[in-house]
Amino acid sequence: MGVTVAGYLMVRTDQGQVAGAAFAAAALPGSRAMAVLEQQREQMIVMDTATHTLHVVRAPKLASRASATTGSTTGSTTTTGGGGGVTTASGPPPNPGTAQSIAYHMMSSFGFSPSSQWTCLDDLWQQESGWNYQAENASGAFGIPQALPGSKMASAGADWQTNPATQIKWGLGYIQSIYGTPCGAWSHEQADGYY
Questions:
Q1: Is the pTM of this model over 0.70?
Q2: Is the pLDDT of residue 48 over 70?
Q3: φ, ψ for residue 169, nearest 5 deg
Q4: Alpha carbon distances (Å) from 48 to 5, 41, 109, 122, 165
Q5: Interhelix angle for 164-178 vs 182-192, to 10°?
């Protein structure tokens, strides 16, 4: 005799609006569905904690390409494997107090290794927005990750128009869900001109 449990998760946003996400999962110990839900719950807790600990007290400084690598020669790019290969990029951490630094330190909460994925993310968002949280293009894409429309980023926080951390959180989640890794998104950007 099997037992199946279905649940309904209600999430309240800061504005008091209710958004629902229905899910059904087999409630057997060790089930894949429950493991995925638990992993997502843990990530939500980490991201909630991050949004409460990151406070923007002024507009972030934007590091130039030269200043991001000044004093370090440890950056490298390695290609491994045969047909198609896998690109693993590494580079020095960005200067503290910049949008790049916020992203670098947030990467691991999405399961990305900064040591192997940072250069791809830096290249991607440098090309997309120049790391400018106010960047907007003619088609209406907005912010550091160039979300189209920009209002999509409201799912990461009500301050999406003014807070680089909120934009970065949304952008990393988008990359994770669509491309798997920043290097996957950067490869798509290079091949197709967008991500």
A1: no
A2: no
A3: -60, -45
A4: 27, 10, 11, 24, 12
A5: 80
Question: What distance in Å separates the CA atoms of residue 118 and residue 91, rounded to the nearest whole number?
Answer: 7
* Measured distance CA(56)–CA(35) in Å, rounded: 34
60/67: higher pLDDT:
60
The values of phi and psi at residue 89, to 5°, are -120, 145
Q: What is the chain written as a DSSP string? A: ----EEEEEEEE-TTS-EEEEEEEE--STT-HHHHHHHHHHHHHHHHHHHHHH---SSPPBPPPHHHHHTT----EEEEESSSS-EEEEE-PPPPTTBHHHHHHHHGGGGT--HHHHHHHHHHHHHHHHTT-TT-B-TT--BTTTTBSSGGGGGGG-TTTTT-HHHHHHHHHHHHHHHTSSHHHHHHHHHHHS--
Q: Rounded to an integer, what distance in angstroms lies between the CA atom of residue 50 and that of residue 166?
A: 10
pLDDT at 154 over 60: yes
Name residue 160's beta-bridge partners: none
